Amino acid sequence: MGIKERKLKHKEDLKQSILDAAKKLFIKEGYQATSIRKIAAEIEFSPTTIYLYYKDKAAISHALHQEGFKLLASQFSILAHIDHPFERLKAMGRVYMQFALENNDFYELMFNREEPLDCVDEHWEEGEQAFRILLMVVQGCQQAGYFTQFNAESFAMFIWSTMHGLCTLKIKGHLDQVVKRKMVMQDIDDAFTHTFETFIATLEKLK
Amino acid sequence: MGIKERKLKHKEDLKQSILDAAKKLFIKEGYQATSIRKIAAEIEFSPTTIYLYYKDKAAISHALHQEGFKLLASQFSILAHIDHPFERLKAMGRVYMQFALENNDFYELMFNREEPLDCVDEHWEEGEQAFRILLMVVQGCQQAGYFTQFNAESFAMFIWSTMHGLCTLKIKGHLDQVVKRKMVMQDIDDAFTHTFETFIATLEKLK
DNA sequence: CAAATATACTTTACAGTGTTAAGTTTCCAA
DNA sequence: TTGGAAACTTAACACTGTAAAGTATATTTG
């Protein structure tokens, strides 16, 4: 049944090109501006054809959301080359920050939107896996004498909170709004990295 | 010219009732579901009347956003009764968390949406004022011997990041998603407060 | 091979959105 | 009484996501 397979292949192709078109629009114009109709126009199909391949817009969001996690995971892969656990943790933070800033639409979709999670039935595999990596790095640090008095899970949660908060404040422009005014940090040009360094310094003191 | 004043009063009244209606809908159904048309129906005027009092929807968002900051500021007022600086910082964190969870739509509008900030011309007074309070509390802590080796502004920024990250992760459901699974923190029923406690514990070590 | 059926896609339509321009009513001042 | 301004509405535009119904084309079956 070679024909049936080719058909299926073709169907998969179209599903993929819908996603590619969505991704393209999404990266260029952001989530709000990425409408079903524009995606359809991009691939030169009628808008309703999209619904033959994706349940609704949230399903497309979810697919993009997963693409984002793949991308993040690939960025994290460089961490394997760093031996010292605490150095690895620092590098992980920097990779996370860079990812958030360079792909802020993806970041938004991955962590700040609820639509994609509506498609996730009680199980958010991508998020868990990313958290698991952080948890392992934290546990590595603990074996090297860091954060020994803390529960690994909640310490990882704390680290994630700080990094997530910092990145979202930066992306939404709140960081610069508060900081670039004369009132605070007159002397600091980059509040973002400086706040990160402060965070790292506090962690360093917990050896 | 008593008549003209009454007119002006009446205009202000309508502007206020638009805001009240928006607030009511917004609290009950969230930002997305609060449309100009629904606000208009609520006050029994035609949709376009709204535009005689507010430039566009972002202007209404901005007004609500300011209401949110008023509310937060009123919650912060209880901090004045707490003498010990570090206790005040802890209480501030708890008030912030409670505000975020109890008014998560407001919180979203205040810190996670960009629309309201579009109305703010290069100056985000509300945000700055809130940050100034945090900064003062941090400086108070420093005078009591905490965080002395750190720059107050960036330390305040770090604290805000952590609190903001924790609250948004909680609100968006990511915290529970990652934590309530068996894989981590089997024994912890409330990951949110536990992570906060971990954060406070790290701060405590920086005396 | 012809008829029935399934597949893939489109057209049309609904109910909603923010927003603008033009039209209408109301009310006050000259 | 009349002119005009102020307050409000109607109608319309250009969008949005999505469902139902219609139409070709291709495949299977009698």
UniProtKB/TrEMBL annotation, chains A, B:
Residues 12-72 form the HTH tetR-type domain. InterPro entries: Homeodomain-like_sf, HTH-type_Tx_Regulator, HTH_TetR, MT1864/Rv1816-like_C, Tet_transcr_reg_TetR-rel_C_sf. Keywords: DNA-binding, Transcription, Transcription regulation. PROSITE patterns: HTH_TETR_2 (PS50977). Residues 35-54 bind DNA. This is TetR/AcrR family transcriptional regulator. It comes from Terrimonas ginsenosidimutans.
